[in-house]
Write a structure and sequence with these properties.
This protein has about 400 residues and is of the alpha/beta class. The chain is about 40% helix and about 15% strand. The protein has an 8-stranded parallel sheet with strand order 3-2-1-4-5-7-11-15, with helices on both faces. Strands 8-10-12 form a 3-stranded mixed sheet.
Length: about 400
């Protein structure tokens, strides 16, 4: 298949692109580079611009015989959505409508949407299925909720086939380190934890009175490469799963929730160093967060590639060993003027995320190989606090 990925220069979109190519598909990228990075596109066919630009969409579709669209382009920062809700509704909802109009005009009728598990209401057991109640808790989450309804209505009114993947919490990096978390200061919990470690500052656990096992919020973390492979499976079986109902929804998660306090413990175990932790009030527009029910018939978990269900592995082991290998795009990134400091930070973020994930795997999911953690930690720390601006792993 030839696949158009909107937002294909971002963290998720670029990783999905790599997974698609490894599965034998051709990738075309449309991204305005407001958050994505040009070097993440690699040698793929690339169009820089707005997904709502109808002339550009006509050009993309006329120059490439697109079989399906993976729609990852969106604003995603929850606190920003609280202070700028209209910008989020315009960008995430309004521009998706324009994208769908361009697809319809050009005869492209398959779309895979990057949705979010943040649209779910939280129940007392913190487990959800695709049939669970919806109650988005922020303008960002509401935009995902609204786009799902747009897709559902459009699919029932036309020949559109649409599938929404409700992600939980992606973590880690492409195993070959072609791409990864490109935002210098991520606003998610692990990003803030890594910032606190790098800057020797305080990490705040926001809310310790949630009805969870230790009072802190709970998250289901999924390795981003598993998430990317779930996209490939969804694309390859999209016609099959939409044969009777043109709009479908799947949760993408592991079914293993980790609390913020447990994540702190995993981080400290992985680094071998204490983190300065304080406890504060709940942040605006937050909830303890659900996890997918592993026993639900439509919740994605480990499965055979031939399954019509997109799959996600419960043991993200590729993250640890891959994080100590060179970032394959580095030479091109340097040529294209990416600051060395950003590349260094990317490497550290990737390594720290991987060792934390490794500690979580060891404590809650499966066997953890401590020698890999030790090697990875040596790579992660070398040069971080030295005067050398170019650590040896570049």
């Amino acid at each position: 298949m030839r696949i158009l990925i909107t937002g294909g220069a971002g963290y998720i979109g670029s990783t999905v692109g790599s997974a698609c190519e490894e599965a034998g598909h051709e990738v075309v990228v449309l991204d305005d580079l407001s958050a994505g990075r040009r070097e993440f596109v690699g040698d793929r066919t690339f169009y820089e611009g707005d997904i709502a630009d109808q002339d550009l969409l006509d050009r993309v579709f006329s120059e490439n015989q697109i079989d399906a669209v993976v729609h990852c382009a969106a604003k995603i920062i929850v606190p920003e959505s609280v202070t700028q809700p209209l910008a989020y509704y315009e960008n995430n909802v309004g521009k998706t409508v324009k994208l769908l109009q361009g697809m319809a005009r050009n005869g492209v009728n398959r779309i895979l949407f990057s949705s979010s598990a943040s649209i779910y209401a939280t129940d007392s057991e913190f487990k959800v299925t695709e049939q669970s109640a919806l109650d988005p808790g922020s303008p960002y989450a509401t935009t995902k909720f609204m786009v799902e309804y747009v897709l559902k209505d459009a699919a029932h009114a036309s020949d559109l086939k649409a599938l929404s993947l409700r992600y939980f919490n992606p973590i880690g990096s492409d195993p070959k380190l072609r791409t990864g978390q490109q935002i210098e200061h991520p606003t998610h919990v692990l990003g803030k934890m890594i910032d606190a470690w790098l800057e020797k500052s305080t990490f705040t656990v926001t809310g310790v009175e949630w009805p969870t096992r230790d009072g802190s919020g709970i998250r289901d973390f999924i390795h981003v490469w598993d998430l990317a492979k779930a996209h490939v499976a969804a694309l390859e079986h999209l016609d099959e799963v939409t044969a009777e109902e043109p709009y479908q929804v799947f949760n993408i998660g592991t079914g293993n929730g980790v609390t913020v306090k447990e994540l702190v413990d995993a981080f400290q175990t992985g680094t071998g160093q204490p983190l300065d932790v304080v406890y504060g009030p709940r942040a605006p527009a937050t909830s303890p967060a659900p996890t997918p029910s592993p026993t639900a018939p439509r919740t994605c978990s480990a499965g055979a590639p031939s399954s019509p269900r997109p799959t996600a592995s419960a043991t993200p082991s590729p993250g640890c060993p891959s994080a100590r290998r060179s970032w394959a795009t580095e030479p091109r990134a340097v040529r294209e003027g990416v600051p060395m400091e950003l590349l260094r930070r990317h490497k550290v973020l990737t390594a720290l995320a991987a060792i934390t994930l490794g500690a979580m795997v060891g404590g809650r999911i499966g066997a953890h190989r401590s020698h890999q953690r030790a090697e990875l930690w040596a790579v992660a720390t070398e040069g971080v606090r030295s005067a050398d601006p170019r650590p040896r792993w570049f």
